[in-house]
Design goal:
Blueprint (H helix, E strand, L loop, with lengths): L16 H7 L7 E5 L5 E5 L4 H5 L9 H20 L1
Antiparallel strand pairs: 1-2
Length: 84
Amino acid sequence: MSRTMTMTSKGQVTIPKEVRDELGLKPFDRLEIVGDGQGGAKIRKAGRSLEEVAGMFPGLGLSDDELEHAIQEARDDHFVTKYG
């Protein structure tokens, strides 16, 4: 599907309804534009941000000090596993 759009002086474009429908886009969806290095680009629905994904999981119930200690232990274990 090919559609022509016009960019405003502010760099904004309106995505045609047919394209929004095909991509399943809804208001406030995030989009990603990927250049092909030859003057072309593709537009696609963006994946979720780290902040959005992190909010989906319950907390671990650890204090800041306990969490920092657990992170340091994981780093140490990873270092030993990777570098011996």
